[in-house]
Design brief:
The protein has three helices and five strands. It has helices at 2-24, 30-38, 51-59, and strands at residues 41-44, 67-74, 84-90, 96-101, 107-108. The longest helix has 23 residues, at 2-24. Keywords: Signal.
Length: 110
């Protein structure tokens, strides 16, 4: 029960942070977003991530102390291949990190 509460609070905070940053972004930032969509990359809210990905983030020791930013669903170039998910974080050293997951919550090494 406690993990569920922590998970809900973490995703609520992440969503709020992402919305606040998005509101402050100038309209010139819309061009990269349009390019990402053309490449099959769609921005999604943290609550739209598959449950397995959410669980991997919450339980993964590697991500403890990290702040979650934007999340993306990436459609594969091949028909029938599963989608992947990119999650942007700010790590404990205040450095941006992008982590890719498959639908089962497994980290995809680049």
């Amino acid at each position: 029960m406690n993990k569920i509460s922590v998970l809900a609070a973490a995703f609520a905070l992440a969503g709020f942070t992402a919305q606040a940053q998005e509101a402050a972004t100038p309209t010139a930032a819309q061009q990269p977003a349009q390019q990402e969509q053309a490449q099959g990359k769609q921005k999604i809210g943290p609550e739209e991530l598959p449950d397995a990905v959410k669980e991997a983030i919450v339980t993964g020791e590697e991500y403890q102390g990290w702040t979650m930013g934007e999340a993306f669903k990436v459609q594969p170039a091949e028909d029938g291949a599963p989608a992947t998910y990119e999650v942007q974080f700010i790590n404990a050293d205040k450095q941006p990190v992008t982590v890719r997951f498959d639908e089962t919550g497994k980290k995809i090494e680049s």
